Amino acid sequence: MKIESLLELKGREVVTARPSSKLTTLVRLMKLGGTGCVVVTEDGKHVQGVVAVRDISYALAEYDDVKLAMDLTASDIMSRSVKTCSPEDTLKSVMQDMTRWHILNEPVMKDGELYGIVSIDDVVKYAVQEMELESEVLHDDVLRLQTLKSLS
Fold first, then answer.
1. Does the residue 142 lie in any domain?
2. Would 50 be classed as within a structural domain?
3. What pLDDT does residue 124 have?
4. 83 CB contacts (<8 Å, ≥6 apart)?
């Protein structure tokens, strides 16, 4: 399955924030969006970074005073080196990248602009569906062969 097909099934919505967004805003966006990351972008098209739950946890761990940490912005804590994929990439290649790079979310870029996002949950869900379908097809083939064998 290509990432384009996955996005058609799940939608292309991406939770985004500006680099100046405060930590509390990022957490609120994650909660409201039901996601574990926020894509940081000034214009909604060009990815400047990603803030994941892990980035927030690490930022909080660096401060003895949590109130001081609340003044941090997305640009202060975001991961700037963002692994992305394209709509033409396969589910398998994205799953391999997520495993290799230890990432849970991967923005999808098309023609240099933000096009969607896939999470590890999305990838696993659709990979399992693909495997179940393949299993059903193989099972049907076995039954068909057994039937043909019994008729001959």
1. no
2. yes
3. 80
4. 97, 101, 103, 106
Q: Which regions of the chain are under pLDDT 50?
A: none
CB within 8 A of 142, min separation 6: which ones? none
Rounded distance between C-alpha atoms, residue 49 and residue 68, angstroms:
22
Q: How far apart are CA 139 and CA 58, in angstroms?
A: 48
Domain-embedded: residue 88: yes
Which tokens belong to 82?
């963002």
Residue 46 lies in a domain: yes
Q: What is the Cα–Cα distance from 106 to 145, expressed in whole angstroms?
A: 42
pTM assigned to the model: 0.82
Provide the token pair at 145. 């062969």
CATH number at residue 107: 3.10.580.10
The phi and psi torsions of 61 (rounded to 5 degrees) equal: -65, -25
**Domains in the chain, number:** 1
- Percent helix, strand, coil in the chain, to 5, is 50, 20, 30
Structural domain boundaries, residue 43: 3-120
In this prediction, residue 135 carries a pLDDT of 64
